[in-house]
Design goal:
Helices cover 5% and strands 46% of the residues. It has a single domain, classed as Copper binding periplasmic protein CusF (OB fold (Dihydrolipoamide Acetyltransferase, E2P), Beta Barrel), CATH 2.40.50. Strand 1 and strand 2 form a beta hairpin. The protein has one helix and five strands, in the order H-E-E-E-E-E. By secondary structure, the protein is mostly beta strands. InterPro entries: CusF_Ec, CusF_sf. This is Periplasmic copper-binding protein.
Length: 87
Amino acid sequence: MPKKPAASASASTMPLVDGEVRKVDIQKNLVVLRHGDIPNLAMPAMTMGFEVSDKKMLDGLKVGDKVKFQAESINGKAMVTELKPNH
């Protein structure tokens, strides 16, 4: 079994960021989030669209939902790699 790249080994140390769902586009595998700072991407708080690494993350998601998420730069794109409800 091949070893995972070092970047994914640090995934557990990446912060979960608070966000609010502004739009869900299942056809494009996309979620638009209003979010706080994302330190690992050096991204300030803003509203922007992210592709998700697993389309199942979008199941049941609706505008206005509060979430916690993790985003990584994958092939030059900011992609959500973890997404869960923030109750």
